[in-house]
Design brief:
This protein has helices spanning about 45-50, 95-105, 110-120, 135-150, 165-185, 195-200, 220-225, 230-235, and strands at about 5-10, 20-25, 30-35, 60-65, 65, 80, 155-160, 185-190, 205-210, 210-215, 240-250, 250-255, 255-260, 265-275, 280, 290-300, 305, 315, 330, 335-340, 350-355, 360. The chain is elongated. A 6-stranded mixed beta sheet has the order 6-7-8-3-9-10, sandwiched between helices. It has a 5-stranded antiparallel beta sheet with strand order 13-12-11-14-22. A hairpin with a 2-residue loop joins strand 4 (about 60-65) and strand 5 (about 65). By secondary structure, it is of the alpha+beta class. About 25% of the residues lie in helices and about 30% in strands.
Length: about 375
């Protein structure tokens, strides 16, 4: 096993597109680190540079003590798991899993032993004689994982490996890959656009935007202490409510309603309130928002209330999946997660108490978090 390090790494394509811009990131030996971000954020390009499938324009990439910029992919001692499985259709499961070992001219007995051991670990021991076309999507992904495992590489590189699976299989495979990492302890760099995968699987999560690293931390720290507006809006499901407000000596004014949030900042702010930081209140009062219900979604374990925002709500271009960098106003977006026992009809007004300790403030100009 080995660490992986990016030192001021950039990638500029021939057409001038800067896919990765000055990336500094270290994945410790044995760590499971996830690169997450929207389409075009540079996460897959970063992974491909580690694998040697893309050449870094500048900066150094290291695997363990070796700088691997000029090293051929086959000499980097890494194993990749792709979104498309990349299995050979004319080979059996056993042949697919052992193919890299066969190319390395390993003894047949050693190949058979390692394939059998990996297949047993993955729960596909009875599938070794089948062809890929006879397997389900989840089984194919396990074969792809097995092909990587048998090589005993210094690091695993996984590029959106679950995106072709249905929702139920994705949940199962998330847990399976996390468990597999606990057992093997192999350094893993995993790329996804799905923040739920990032939050549930990674030791650390690196959030990327426009080729740059926005924040890297544990999943819980990203959720509780986002460093900027983008991370705040990207991490968490449903997304954090982001509202335009004005901070003064008495707190923060949201339209005609006020929250007694203490901050030395004065003037315009963007206020972040997670749907989970709200709870039903008996009526109006300090720290309570009174809002009109637009829609009520019953989820079984809880209810999502879609409400008219007390002030202008904002979305970033990334949240809208557009290339527009400006914040976009949307006066209707405000979501609260409440217990299933709470009933609210569309058109009615509800009173929700805000956990003021969990309110986030951001600078509208820089989008950076404002300290409290």
């Amino acid at each position: 096993m080995a660490s992986i390090a990016f030192e001021d790494v950039s990638k500029v394509f021939d057409d001038g597109t800067k896919a990765v811009d000055g990336l500094d990131l270290e994945i410790a030996d044995g760590e499971f680190t996830i690169l997450v971000g929207p389409s075009g954020s540079g996460k897959s390009t970063a992974l491909r540079m580690v694998a040697g499938l893309e050449e870094a324009t500048s900066g150094d990439i290291s695997i363990g003590p070796r700088v691997v910029n000029d090293m051929a992919p086959k000499d980097r001692d890494i194993a990749m798991v792709f979104q498309s499985y990349a299995l050979y259709p004319h080979m059996s499961v056993a042949e697919n899993m052992g193919f890299a070992l066969k190319l390395a001219k390993q003894p047949k007995a050693e190949i058979a032993s390692r394939v059998s051991s990996a297949a047993t670990r993955l729960g596909i021991g009875e599938l070794l004689h089948r062809r890929p076309r006879a397997l389900s999507g989840g089984q194919r992904q396990r074969v792809a994982l097995g092909r990587a495992i048998v090589r005993s590489p210094e690091a695993f590189l996984m590029d959106e490996p679950l995106s072709n699976l249905d929702a139920k299989l994705r949940v199962e495979m998330r847990a399976y890959i996390a468990k597999l990492h606990q057992e093997l302890g192999t350094t893993t760099l995993y790329v996804t656009h799905d923040q739920t995968e990032a939050m549930t699987m990674g030791d650390r999560v690196a959030v990327m935007r426009d080729g740059r690293l926005s924040q890297v931390d544990t999943p819980q720290a990203l959720y509780e202490r986002p460093a900027n507006l983008f991370v705040a809006g990207f991490i968490g499901s449903p997304a954090m409510n982001l509202l335009r407000g004005v901070a003064d000596e008495d707190g923060v004014l949201l339209g005609t309603q006020r929250l007694a949030v203490r901050t030395p900042h004065r003037g315009d702010v963007i206020v972040g309130i997670r749907p989970e930081a709200l709870e039903p209140a008996g009526g109006p009062g300090p720290g309570v928002l009174s809002l009109r219900v637009v829609l009520s979604e019953m989820l079984g374990s809880d209810v999502l209330l879609h409400l008219e925002a007390p002030a202008s709500s904002v979305l970033t271009g990334d949240m809208l999946d557009t290339e527009d960098e400006e914040l976009v106003d949307d006066t209707t977006r405000f979501v609260a997660r409440v217990p299933p026992s709470f009933r609210a009809d569309p058109g009615s007004t509800v009173h929700l108490r805000v956990d003021l300790d969990r309110v986030h403030l951001f600078d509208p100009a820089t989008e950076a978090v404002i300290g409290r």
